[in-house]
């Protein structure tokens, strides 16, 4: 039934009720009775979900009535199925309303930008937010902690932006070195400022009286001294983990209301791993949630392997693609199966390999193809790959050290080009959503502003976010904003005569050059064809319209110029599952969810704990010790090559080697007695993460052979 409901646009004929509660279509009968039955209300309140997830016997002996009635035509046409393939009912419409159209006209004709929203406003309230419906004696404390966490996260919105700009000049005004104090869990900070003491001051040990006069420096101390990890509640986390690791709770869908509501409204209570499991339990069907549980807890799989009630029944659909037309064929695959609840498996033409390895490589290679410079999707510089294979030779790709962000459109962009780019972003949305749903990873280095757009936080983007897409432009904007601040101070000085004020304004310069002499006009820096307002090419920037110019630059770079691309991205993503399910995560955490573990140091101790020697090797084997020593010396690019060779994906899941499933297994590659192991390369079975390693005579030979295999053994799956 779940697969049928999620197979496409299902038109429902009936609605079901318990009392006045409309039941979601993807809810089990048991879950509906447990949550909404009036007869079971006292039962539900007096039952501890954790100790007795099936409730007391009374719930099974009473009669519970479920009412049904036909769906009216007008309701059916306006309502999306809950648990169906779309979740658009929970999201804002993407089409421009007449009111928005008016705003756009004001932007184009008058240069009037919408004001930046303050993310703190939704937290600084005395009553519970709408998505918290449970009642509990601890609710007041929960709301207080929610406010404190929000202030520690968004404290700079409480103060004059001029102070914040001082802190945000990352390379020239402020240099921050952080060091973790393992003893008390606090984050100490060494602050070096262009003005102030000549040597760093450990401000966690500095008294308030000794703080410098600027309030921004004082705020900075207290803001970073509250470590976000201190908000994690160990007791709530333990209780949540017990619920989320119980197969019976998963299969009955009996997740407590408090857990899902706290997960989205107060995610800081739980570590990332707990929220990731909660996400999979609530966002998708029960079989997928069960599969995720078994993947992350192999001991459950072993203990319940004979229990057919626990084993997930996931449909799988295989597609064969051609490497030479990978992007085109990937678009076709996502068009056909992106919204399907079946697990996607990929095989390549003329290659016998199938299963996990080729599928992981498919997502990695398509991610790379989407970074091609000729597609015109991203901001950044054009580069060529260090080790190109096949069609990659001679192809240029976009690289941005801060992370990828959409290339902006102007008002005069050609409709055909806009349509082509929007189609690619819609495909990207589908690809990313399908990767999340199928427990796969994409290899896209997206920037933080991209993830803020995903979580619908684009209205709070400011000039500080420019540092995350184009630091050169951001630094120039910062220097020009400093001129605006000086202009404001001069205009607020009542002692200035009109003549003196005019003279003082004319002497304001950037690097010794007046604003007029900079030769700027109302076009987006780096994009001379994108006008910030109508006729912008012919409007010079002066000291008097500089503030308007900067507001428009920031708004066009982060919002107006990219809104159509992100609308298409959201449409594609939400054709698979609603973006609202990602509210369990913060923007900076989405990279872990989508792309897995970031590059980190591999040490021999961790590798020994996480990797499994077998079939001829033990942890004491010379070859295994050689391997761990070699892997621990790899740089980030060599790590990516090795992972792509062994697993099919250049990145590890969150948790690194510890979370790799199946674990990396090292087996001995055997030869005839007349053959020399030093003459052969290692081989792999990516579907089970098997490395078949010859017993090389020296560590130097093993390192050489490993790197040759990793570089040359890409993009082909054959029998080994």
Annotate the secondary structure layout.
Blueprint: H1 2-5, E1 14-18, E2 21-22, H2 29-36, H3 41-45, H4 58-61, E3 67-70, H5 73-78, H6 98-110, H7 139-154, H8 161-168, E4 174-180, E5 187-193, E6 201-202, H9 215-225, H10 234-244, H11 247-252, H12 257-265, H13 272-283, H14 286-296, H15 298-303, E7 316-321, H16 326-337, E8 343-348, H17 356-369, E9 381-384, E10 396-399, H18 415-437, H19 448-454, H20 463-466, H21 471-492, H22 498-506, E11 509-510, E12 513-514, E13 523-524, E14 527-531, H23 546-560, H24 563-574, H25 590-595, H26 604-610, E15 612-614, H27 622-632, H28 636-647, E16 665-668, E17 683-685, E18 690-693, H29 699-712
Helix pairs in contact: 8-9, 10-13, 13-14, 18-24, 28-29
Walk me through the structure:
This protein has 720 residues and is an alpha+beta fold. Helix 18 packs parallel to helix 24. The two termini are 41 Å apart.
